[in-house]
């Protein structure tokens, strides 16, 4: 699975939009009451996705094309349990990793692979289901990647690592098997650990801390057959405190951080799935402009649980 442009991209996007429209049409507009009866034990879900594209050319090929192999693997898992009549616990884990292998144009030998995707996101969300308009919540988050490679400083696994602790109030707008939309707002703290400190001179501190307000909305919409699915994750963070503000005279730490991830998928035949992934990031301390990643392709999808 990789980024695709051109007419094929437009055709696949149109297919996905048609699937999303049919999924939305199949659902009533009325808001269902929150469902806090999950039944005994943990409600587990896990989906495995694998996308692959390949091309090759012979050594006497007259054009300037080169062979390539791209692959992307992802696992999307969740575990949820109504531990008590008034406490519900939801854990979500997203793993994404992919590489692109490419031939050298002059020698046709295969070069070292380049990383195209690398993401580990974990969110542990506990909501006190009191039956009110909003419910108190506590949350713990982990964001990292499988490895961080910096030339000429080497490679470090699970770097950088960001940990967050939050508390506030949450509202379950939709809470059914086919439609889930939970929004929460609160206050918390984040710690960012970068183990290239002391090796890369651009990394001035190993651990930095900030605190501020969080607004996070997570949604999942699917049809009755679960052939079409839209998942969205919007996270907005406004810092009011930064431990290293003296190292940021421009005050970029005061600007609002935004990350909005969207995954739209439709099954075209049993385990064959067309998927579109959009990831928008705005973090002024990393880049002064918004960053957008698009991944579009066809691959295999299998429900492990």
Quick structural gist:
Helix content is about 5%, strand content about 60%.
Written overview of the protein:
The protein is mainly beta. It has a single domain (7-40, 118-303), classed as Beta Barrel (Outer membrane phospholipase (ompla), Chain C). The chain is built from one helix and 14 strands. The chain has one helix at residues 7-25, and strands spanning 43-55, 68-84, 87-102, 114-127, 135-144, 147-150, 154-157, 161-175, 179-193, 207-222, 228-242, 257-269, 272-282, 291-303. A twelve-stranded antiparallel beta barrel has the order 1-2-3-4-5-8-9-10-11-12-13-14. A hairpin with a 5-residue loop joins strand 10 (207-222) and strand 11. The longest helix is centred in the first third of the chain and has 19 residues, at 7-25. The chain is flat. Residues 1-13 and 20-34 have low confidence and may be disordered.
What features would you highlight for this structure?
305 residues, mainly beta, Outer membrane phospholipase (ompla), Chain C, two-stranded antiparallel sheet, 1 helix, 14 strands, disordered N terminus
Spatial shape: flat
CATH topology: Outer membrane phospholipase (ompla), Chain C
Radius of gyration: 22 Å
- What series of H and E elements makes up the topology? HEEEEEEEEEEEEEE
């Amino acid at each position: 699975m990789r980024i695709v442009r051109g007419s094929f991209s437009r055709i696949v996007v149109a297919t996905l939009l048609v699937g999303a429209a049919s999924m939305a049409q199949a659902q009533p507009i009325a808001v269902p009451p929150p469902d806090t009866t999950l039944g005994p034990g943990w409600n587990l879900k896990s989906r495995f996705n694998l996308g692959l594209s390949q091309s090759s050319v012979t050594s006497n090929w007259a054009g300037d094309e080169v062979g390539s192999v791209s692959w992307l693997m992802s696992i999307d898992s969740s575990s949820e349990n109504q531990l008590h009549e008034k406490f519900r616990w939801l854990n979500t884990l997203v793993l994404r990793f992919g590489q692109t292998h490419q031939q050298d144009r002059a020698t046709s030998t295969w070069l070292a692979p380049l990383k195209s995707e690398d993401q580990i996101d974990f969110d542990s969300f506990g909501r006190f289901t009191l039956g009110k308009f909003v419910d108190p919540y506590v949350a713990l988050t982990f964001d990292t990647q499988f490895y961080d490679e910096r030339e000429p400083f080497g490679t470090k696994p699970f770097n950088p690592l960001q940990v967050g602790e939050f508390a506030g109030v949450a509202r379950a707008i939709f809470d059914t098997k086919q439609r889930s939309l939970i929004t929460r707002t609160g206050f918390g703290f984040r710690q960012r650990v970068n183990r290239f400190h002391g090796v890369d001179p651009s990394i001035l501190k190993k651990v930095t801390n900030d605190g501020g307000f969080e607004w996070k909305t997570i949604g999942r919409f699917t049809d009755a057959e679960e052939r079409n699915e839209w998942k969205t994750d919007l996270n907005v963070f406004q810092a009011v405190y930064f431990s290293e503000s003296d190292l940021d005279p421009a005050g970029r730490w005061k600007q609002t951080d935004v990350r909005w991830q969207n995954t739209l998928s439709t099954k075209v035949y049993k385990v064959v799935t067309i998927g579109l992934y959009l990831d928008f990031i705005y973090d002024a301390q990393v880049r002064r402009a918004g960053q957008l990643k698009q991944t579009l392709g066809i691959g295999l999808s299998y429900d492990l649980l």
